[in-house]
Predict the 3D structure of the following.
Amino acid sequence: MEWKILALFFCILLSTPLPAQPQLLADSLLAHVQTLSSDKYEGRRTQEAGNLLAGEYLLQRFENFGLEQFDSTYLQSFHFYSRWQKQGYEGRNVIGYLKGTEYPEKYIVLSAHYDHLGKRDGDIYNGADDNASGVGALLEMARYLGQHPPRHSIIFAAFDAEELGLRGADHFLDEPPVPLDNIILNVNMDMISRNTRQELYIVGAGYNPFLRAPLEKLGEDCPLTISFGHESPEPTRSDDWTMASDHGKFHQKNIPFLYFGVEDHEDYHQPTDDFERILPAFYIQAAEFILNSLLHLDEHWEQLVRR
Ligand SMILES: [Zn+2]
Protein backbone atom coordinates (compact mmCIF):
# COMPACT_ATOMS: atom_id res chain seq x y z
CA MET A 1 0.00 0.00 0.00
CA GLU A 2 1.29 3.41 -0.91
CA TRP A 3 2.21 5.43 2.21
CA LYS A 4 -0.27 8.25 1.53
CA ILE A 5 -3.11 5.80 1.29
CA LEU A 6 -1.85 4.10 4.40
CA ALA A 7 -1.74 7.45 6.25
CA LEU A 8 -5.25 8.27 5.06
CA PHE A 9 -6.43 4.86 6.22
CA PHE A 10 -5.08 5.49 9.71
CA CYS A 11 -6.63 8.97 9.81
CA ILE A 12 -10.03 7.50 9.01
CA LEU A 13 -9.47 4.73 11.52
CA LEU A 14 -8.61 7.20 14.30
CA SER A 15 -11.41 9.65 13.55
CA THR A 16 -14.18 7.06 13.38
CA PRO A 17 -15.77 6.63 16.79
CA LEU A 18 -15.49 3.04 17.88
CA PRO A 19 -18.74 1.16 18.44
CA ALA A 20 -19.60 0.43 22.07
CA GLN A 21 -17.28 -2.24 23.36
CA PRO A 22 -18.92 -5.51 24.26
CA GLN A 23 -18.77 -5.88 28.02
CA LEU A 24 -20.12 -9.36 28.49
CA LEU A 25 -18.22 -12.50 27.54
CA ALA A 26 -20.17 -14.18 24.76
CA ASP A 27 -18.65 -17.60 25.44
CA SER A 28 -19.61 -17.44 29.11
CA LEU A 29 -23.17 -16.34 28.34
CA LEU A 30 -23.66 -19.24 25.96
CA ALA A 31 -21.94 -21.75 28.26
CA HIS A 32 -24.32 -20.89 31.13
CA VAL A 33 -27.35 -21.45 28.90
CA GLN A 34 -25.96 -24.64 27.39
CA THR A 35 -25.21 -26.09 30.81
CA LEU A 36 -28.43 -25.12 32.59
CA SER A 37 -30.58 -26.33 29.68
CA SER A 38 -28.75 -29.66 29.34
CA ASP A 39 -30.58 -32.89 30.25
CA LYS A 40 -28.52 -33.16 33.44
CA TYR A 41 -30.65 -30.37 34.94
CA GLU A 42 -33.87 -32.20 34.05
CA GLY A 43 -35.87 -29.09 33.24
CA ARG A 44 -35.19 -27.48 36.66
CA ARG A 45 -38.66 -28.06 38.10
CA THR A 46 -39.07 -26.60 41.61
CA GLN A 47 -38.03 -28.98 44.38
CA GLU A 48 -36.76 -31.68 41.98
CA ALA A 49 -33.12 -32.82 41.69
CA GLY A 50 -32.34 -30.82 38.54
CA ASN A 51 -33.63 -27.63 40.13
CA LEU A 52 -31.49 -28.17 43.24
CA LEU A 53 -28.49 -28.78 40.98
CA ALA A 54 -29.20 -25.51 39.14
CA GLY A 55 -29.36 -23.73 42.51
CA GLU A 56 -25.91 -25.13 43.38
CA TYR A 57 -24.56 -23.97 40.00
CA LEU A 58 -25.84 -20.47 40.70
CA LEU A 59 -24.60 -20.07 44.25
CA GLN A 60 -21.18 -21.40 43.30
CA ARG A 61 -20.89 -18.65 40.70
CA PHE A 62 -22.30 -15.97 43.00
CA GLU A 63 -19.47 -16.90 45.35
CA ASN A 64 -16.84 -16.86 42.58
CA PHE A 65 -17.97 -13.40 41.46
CA GLY A 66 -17.73 -12.04 45.00
CA LEU A 67 -21.41 -11.30 45.60
CA GLU A 68 -22.31 -10.54 49.19
CA GLN A 69 -24.88 -12.50 51.18
CA PHE A 70 -27.88 -11.52 53.29
CA ASP A 71 -27.92 -13.40 56.63
CA SER A 72 -24.79 -15.38 55.69
CA THR A 73 -26.44 -17.32 52.86
CA TYR A 74 -27.32 -17.02 49.18
CA LEU A 75 -30.37 -19.23 49.66
CA GLN A 76 -33.80 -17.91 50.54
CA SER A 77 -35.97 -20.96 51.19
CA PHE A 78 -39.74 -20.80 51.26
CA HIS A 79 -42.76 -23.03 51.43
CA PHE A 80 -45.93 -22.62 49.43
CA TYR A 81 -49.03 -24.54 48.55
CA SER A 82 -50.24 -24.73 44.96
CA ARG A 83 -54.02 -25.03 44.82
CA TRP A 84 -53.75 -25.74 41.13
CA GLN A 85 -51.29 -28.63 41.65
CA LYS A 86 -52.90 -29.56 44.99
CA GLN A 87 -49.56 -29.92 46.70
CA GLY A 88 -47.04 -28.11 48.86
CA TYR A 89 -43.57 -27.17 47.62
CA GLU A 90 -40.23 -26.10 49.04
CA GLY A 91 -38.70 -23.40 46.84
CA ARG A 92 -35.27 -21.75 46.94
CA ASN A 93 -34.41 -18.33 45.62
CA VAL A 94 -30.71 -17.67 45.07
CA ILE A 95 -29.93 -14.10 46.15
CA GLY A 96 -26.71 -12.10 46.36
CA TYR A 97 -25.77 -8.45 46.12
CA LEU A 98 -23.07 -5.92 45.33
CA LYS A 99 -22.83 -2.80 47.45
CA GLY A 100 -23.22 0.49 45.58
CA THR A 101 -20.35 2.99 45.70
CA GLU A 102 -22.54 6.12 45.96
CA TYR A 103 -26.00 5.02 47.04
CA PRO A 104 -25.43 1.81 48.97
CA GLU A 105 -28.84 2.12 50.66
CA LYS A 106 -30.72 2.19 47.34
CA TYR A 107 -31.21 -1.15 45.60
CA ILE A 108 -31.86 -2.24 42.03
CA VAL A 109 -33.11 -5.85 41.88
CA LEU A 110 -31.87 -7.62 38.75
CA SER A 111 -33.89 -10.81 38.38
CA ALA A 112 -34.40 -13.93 36.28
CA HIS A 113 -36.24 -17.14 37.21
CA TYR A 114 -34.20 -20.31 37.05
CA ASP A 115 -36.96 -22.89 37.43
CA HIS A 116 -38.79 -24.46 34.51
CA LEU A 117 -41.28 -27.25 33.82
CA GLY A 118 -39.23 -30.39 34.49
CA LYS A 119 -40.17 -33.69 32.87
CA ARG A 120 -43.51 -34.86 31.50
CA ASP A 121 -44.32 -38.12 29.76
CA GLY A 122 -40.65 -38.94 29.28
CA ASP A 123 -39.82 -35.56 27.73
CA ILE A 124 -37.43 -33.13 29.37
CA TYR A 125 -38.52 -29.50 29.11
CA ASN A 126 -35.05 -27.99 29.04
CA GLY A 127 -36.17 -24.35 28.99
CA ALA A 128 -33.19 -22.86 27.16
CA ASP A 129 -34.90 -19.62 26.25
CA ASP A 130 -37.33 -19.88 29.22
CA ASN A 131 -35.33 -19.04 31.19
CA ALA A 132 -31.76 -20.33 31.12
CA SER A 133 -31.21 -17.31 28.84
CA GLY A 134 -32.18 -14.79 31.53
CA VAL A 135 -30.15 -16.63 34.16
CA GLY A 136 -27.06 -16.75 31.91
CA ALA A 137 -27.29 -12.97 31.48
CA LEU A 138 -27.81 -12.50 35.24
CA LEU A 139 -24.63 -14.47 35.95
CA GLU A 140 -22.52 -12.75 33.33
CA MET A 141 -23.71 -9.34 34.56
CA ALA A 142 -22.84 -10.34 38.13
CA ARG A 143 -19.32 -11.17 36.96
CA TYR A 144 -19.01 -7.88 35.05
CA LEU A 145 -20.43 -5.70 37.82
CA GLY A 146 -18.26 -7.44 40.40
CA GLN A 147 -15.33 -5.94 38.49
CA HIS A 148 -17.06 -2.60 37.75
CA PRO A 149 -18.88 -1.64 40.95
CA PRO A 150 -22.26 0.06 40.41
CA ARG A 151 -23.28 3.33 42.11
CA HIS A 152 -26.46 1.83 43.54
CA SER A 153 -26.49 -1.50 45.29
CA ILE A 154 -27.62 -4.31 43.01
CA ILE A 155 -29.40 -7.43 44.24
CA PHE A 156 -29.01 -10.41 41.92
CA ALA A 157 -32.15 -12.51 42.31
CA ALA A 158 -32.47 -15.92 40.64
CA PHE A 159 -36.08 -16.69 41.48
CA ASP A 160 -37.52 -20.17 41.87
CA ALA A 161 -41.12 -21.29 41.19
CA GLU A 162 -41.98 -18.63 38.62
CA GLU A 163 -43.64 -21.33 36.54
CA LEU A 164 -45.86 -22.21 39.51
CA GLY A 165 -47.25 -18.68 39.75
CA LEU A 166 -44.42 -16.19 40.44
CA ARG A 167 -43.99 -17.77 43.87
CA GLY A 168 -40.28 -17.01 44.39
CA ALA A 169 -40.75 -13.32 43.62
CA ASP A 170 -43.83 -13.31 45.81
CA HIS A 171 -41.84 -14.63 48.76
CA PHE A 172 -38.93 -12.25 48.12
CA LEU A 173 -41.32 -9.30 48.33
CA ASP A 174 -43.12 -10.67 51.39
CA GLU A 175 -39.88 -11.15 53.25
CA PRO A 176 -37.49 -8.74 51.56
CA PRO A 177 -33.85 -8.73 52.67
CA VAL A 178 -33.93 -4.90 52.56
CA PRO A 179 -36.84 -2.51 53.21
CA LEU A 180 -39.12 -2.35 50.15
CA ASP A 181 -38.89 1.46 50.20
CA ASN A 182 -35.18 1.11 49.44
CA ILE A 183 -35.80 -0.86 46.23
CA ILE A 184 -35.87 1.71 43.44
CA LEU A 185 -36.26 -0.60 40.43
CA ASN A 186 -36.67 -4.20 39.29
CA VAL A 187 -35.05 -5.24 36.02
CA ASN A 188 -36.43 -8.66 35.07
CA MET A 189 -35.21 -10.91 32.26
CA ASP A 190 -37.30 -13.82 31.02
CA MET A 191 -36.82 -15.28 27.52
CA ILE A 192 -34.21 -13.08 25.86
CA SER A 193 -32.44 -15.36 23.38
CA ARG A 194 -34.49 -15.60 20.19
CA ASN A 195 -36.90 -13.79 17.93
CA THR A 196 -37.10 -14.23 14.17
CA ARG A 197 -37.94 -10.53 13.71
CA GLN A 198 -34.91 -9.50 15.81
CA GLU A 199 -37.24 -7.73 18.21
CA LEU A 200 -36.79 -7.35 21.97
CA TYR A 201 -39.61 -5.93 24.10
CA ILE A 202 -39.40 -3.63 27.09
CA VAL A 203 -42.42 -3.59 29.38
CA GLY A 204 -42.74 -1.19 32.32
CA ALA A 205 -41.86 2.20 30.88
CA GLY A 206 -45.58 2.83 30.33
CA TYR A 207 -46.13 2.86 34.09
CA ASN A 208 -43.08 5.07 34.64
CA PRO A 209 -42.78 7.24 31.53
CA PHE A 210 -39.52 8.86 32.69
CA LEU A 211 -37.83 5.57 31.81
CA ARG A 212 -38.86 5.58 28.17
CA ALA A 213 -36.74 8.33 26.57
CA PRO A 214 -33.35 7.09 27.84
CA LEU A 215 -34.16 3.52 26.80
CA GLU A 216 -35.36 4.64 23.38
CA LYS A 217 -32.10 6.53 22.93
CA LEU A 218 -30.05 3.47 23.91
CA GLY A 219 -32.18 1.37 21.57
CA GLU A 220 -31.00 3.47 18.61
CA ASP A 221 -27.50 2.06 19.06
CA CYS A 222 -28.71 -1.52 19.43
CA PRO A 223 -28.72 -3.76 16.35
CA LEU A 224 -32.01 -5.29 17.56
CA THR A 225 -35.41 -3.64 17.23
CA ILE A 226 -36.30 -2.39 20.69
CA SER A 227 -40.07 -2.19 21.13
CA PHE A 228 -42.23 -0.87 23.96
CA GLY A 229 -45.67 -2.07 24.93
CA HIS A 230 -47.50 -5.15 26.18
CA GLU A 231 -48.71 -3.18 29.21
CA SER A 232 -51.94 -1.52 30.22
CA PRO A 233 -51.14 2.16 29.67
CA GLU A 234 -50.24 1.43 26.06
CA PRO A 235 -51.75 -1.80 24.77
CA THR A 236 -50.11 -3.10 21.62
CA ARG A 237 -51.37 -5.57 19.08
CA SER A 238 -51.45 -8.44 21.55
CA ASP A 239 -51.65 -9.20 25.23
CA ASP A 240 -50.66 -7.44 28.43
CA TRP A 241 -47.47 -8.82 30.02
CA THR A 242 -47.66 -6.86 33.28
CA MET A 243 -48.17 -10.04 35.31
CA ALA A 244 -46.49 -12.42 32.85
CA SER A 245 -43.35 -12.95 34.93
CA ASP A 246 -41.77 -12.05 38.28
CA HIS A 247 -41.73 -8.29 37.61
CA GLY A 248 -45.51 -8.35 38.17
CA LYS A 249 -44.97 -8.90 41.88
CA PHE A 250 -42.79 -5.78 42.08
CA HIS A 251 -45.46 -3.85 40.21
CA GLN A 252 -48.06 -4.93 42.78
CA LYS A 253 -45.84 -3.34 45.45
CA ASN A 254 -45.62 -0.11 43.42
CA ILE A 255 -41.94 -0.64 42.63
CA PRO A 256 -40.99 0.51 39.12
CA PHE A 257 -40.03 -2.40 36.88
CA LEU A 258 -38.56 -3.02 33.45
CA TYR A 259 -39.14 -6.40 31.90
CA PHE A 260 -37.04 -7.48 28.92
CA GLY A 261 -38.27 -10.39 26.80
CA VAL A 262 -39.41 -11.71 23.45
CA GLU A 263 -42.79 -12.74 22.11
CA ASP A 264 -43.75 -16.40 22.44
CA HIS A 265 -42.31 -18.73 19.82
CA GLU A 266 -43.19 -22.24 18.60
CA ASP A 267 -40.99 -23.87 21.27
CA TYR A 268 -42.46 -21.87 24.17
CA HIS A 269 -43.27 -24.31 27.01
CA GLN A 270 -42.44 -27.24 24.71
CA PRO A 271 -39.78 -29.93 25.20
CA THR A 272 -38.09 -28.40 22.11
CA ASP A 273 -37.04 -25.19 23.91
CA ASP A 274 -33.43 -26.33 23.54
CA PHE A 275 -30.03 -24.66 23.41
CA GLU A 276 -29.69 -25.49 19.70
CA ARG A 277 -32.72 -23.29 18.95
CA ILE A 278 -31.57 -20.09 20.60
CA LEU A 279 -30.05 -17.42 18.33
CA PRO A 280 -26.57 -16.71 19.74
CA ALA A 281 -26.13 -13.32 18.03
CA PHE A 282 -29.58 -12.16 19.15
CA TYR A 283 -28.95 -13.36 22.70
CA ILE A 284 -25.58 -11.66 23.04
CA GLN A 285 -26.94 -8.37 21.64
CA ALA A 286 -29.98 -8.54 23.92
CA ALA A 287 -27.84 -9.16 27.01
CA GLU A 288 -25.49 -6.31 26.06
CA PHE A 289 -28.44 -3.97 25.57
CA ILE A 290 -29.95 -4.88 28.93
CA LEU A 291 -26.61 -4.35 30.67
CA ASN A 292 -26.17 -0.99 28.93
CA SER A 293 -29.68 0.00 30.04
CA LEU A 294 -28.91 -1.03 33.61
CA LEU A 295 -25.60 0.88 33.61
CA HIS A 296 -27.28 3.97 32.19
CA LEU A 297 -30.05 3.92 34.82
CA ASP A 298 -27.51 3.31 37.57
CA GLU A 299 -25.55 6.32 36.35
CA HIS A 300 -28.46 8.72 35.85
CA TRP A 301 -31.27 7.51 38.14
CA GLU A 302 -31.36 10.55 40.45
CA GLN A 303 -31.60 13.05 37.56
CA LEU A 304 -34.21 10.95 35.76
CA VAL A 305 -36.46 10.64 38.81
CA ARG A 306 -36.22 14.40 39.53
CA ARG A 307 -37.43 15.40 36.07
ZN1 LIG B 1 -40.21 -17.78 31.99
Remarks:
- Residues 280-306 form the longest helix (27 residues).
- Residues 113, 130-131, 162, 190-191, 245 surround zinc ion (CB under 6 Å).
- DSSP finds eight helices and ten strands in the chain.
- The radius of gyration is 20 Å.
